[in-house]
Specification:
The chain is α+β, with helices and mostly antiparallel strands. It has a domain of about 60 residues. It contains three helices and two strands; from the N terminus they run E-H-H-E-H.
C-alpha cells in the first residue's frame, strides 16, 4: 500500500476518484484506514491515507485526477442561487 496526503478541500470521494478512478472506491478507503468510520467522514488537509495498489477505472482515474483550483473566493466571484439573475432588461408586452 501507498500513502497519500489529503489536499485542501478534498473529500473522500475526491481521493477515491483521484486514486482509483471511481467514487465507489471510497469503500476501499474506509476499509483500509482505521481512522475512518464512514464514507462521509470529514477530510482535512494534511490527513494521511493508505491507498491500495489498484485502480477500478484507469481512464477515469487519469482524466479526473484532483487539481487544486485557486479562485478569488466568494467575495470577488459570488456563486449560487442567491446570486443568479437576469443580465438583460426584458420588456413584456
Amino acid at each position: 500500500m501507498n500513502k497519500i496526503v489529503a489536499k485542501h478541500k478534498q473529500s473522500l470521494f475526491d481521493i477515491a476518484i483521484e486514486q482509483y478512478g471511481s467514487m465507489e472506491a471510497v469503500e476501499w478507503l474506509v476499509e483500509d484506514n482505521e481512522s475512518l468510520n464512514s464514507i462521509i467522514d470529514t477530510v482535512y488537509a494534511g490527513d494521511v491515507f493508505l491507498i491500495r495498489d489498484a485502480v477500478m477505472n484507469k481512464p477515469v482515474q487519469k482524466e479526473l485526477e484532483y487539481h487544486e483550483v485557486v479562485s478569488g473566493g466568494i467575495e470577488t466571484h459570488p456563486e449560487g442561487v442567491g446570486f443568479w439573475g437576469i443580465e438583460r432588461d426584458f420588456i413584456i408586452q
